[in-house]
Design a protein that fits this description.
With 245 residues, this protein is mostly helical. It has eleven helices and no strands.
């Protein structure tokens, strides 16, 4: 891995995104809009918003980063840009980390805005530190970025990239413990939920919601999310091809 090449790749992606305001709006503003809608859906039951708002503060960025990253990366695959880049003295790790760094920069902005909106404008009531809430939201957004980079290798068109969302994201959404406690699920589904990263993203948010101090469970949860993101980035680098099929 070459640091200068990684940074050059990240700078190139950010320059391209600067000329695509719709993608920037989708990544940065959509989670905020979803949280705003959710707050006033439960306008008469603020405790309901407190109970699920923290979890969705991590889930919304994960979903939007997955969608935008997978489509943006696929566009570069199908246009031949990635093939031309890989024909240069640029390693796969340099390329995938450059993309992750560029989208991760936007994930930081997204997480800051969404967390600030939820805590100080929408009145989300959490017991733990807001910075811990921000940390989990950021890790979730980075996980979405990693998943998007990975699945873009298996889609032949932008339409297929969108179709991966029901296959990759929706099962995790149903099994993550948002709708019911995981221990109340059918045993096979509970075991499956225990290996899905979104489950630990929701658990991490729940720990911040319920505890003032950093708990061992919280550390376990964020480490699992971070390691899953790194593992998926490694798989994404492995799926890069020197030639576009």
């Amino acid at each position: 891995m070459n640091t200068s090449r990684t940074l050059a790749t990240a700078a190139r992606v950010l320059r391209q995104l600067r000329h695509d305001p719709r993608s920037i709006a989708l990544m940065i503003l959509v989670p905020c809009v979803m949280l705003l809608l959710l707050r006033y859906v439960f306008d008469g039951s603020p405790r309901v918003f407190d109970n699920i708002g923290a979890s969705l503060l991590g889930i919304f960025p994960l979903i939007t980063m997955f969608l935008v990253t997978s489509i943006s990366t696929l566009r570069e695959r199908t246009s031949g840009t990635l093939e031309r880049l890989l024909a240069m003295p640029l390693g796969k790790a340099d390329l995938i980390l450059g993309y992750a760094l560029a989208f991760g920069t936007l994930a930081i902005v997204q997480s800051l805005l969404a967390t600030g909106l939820a805590l100080w404008a929408l009145g989300l009531d959490v017991v733990g530190s807001p910075w811990l809430l921000l940390l989990v939201a950021l890790l979730d957004a980075l996980l979405g970025t990693a998943l998007g980079l990975f699945v873009s290798a298996f889609a032949a068109s932008e339409f297929q990239a969108v179709q991966f969302m029901p296959a990759v994201i929706f099962p995790q959404l149903l099994l993550c413990g948002l709708f019911t406690a995981r221990e109340n699920m059918q045993p096979v589904l509970e075991k499956l939920s225990n290996v899905l990263p979104m489950s630990y993203a929701v658990d991490g948010m729940s720990e911040v919601l319920q505890h003032t101090d950093v708990t061992a469970d919280f550390i376990r949860d964020i480490l699992i999310v971070a390691l899953c993101a790194l593992a998926v980035l490694g798989l994404g680098a492995a799926t890069l091809r020197r030639r576009t099929a």
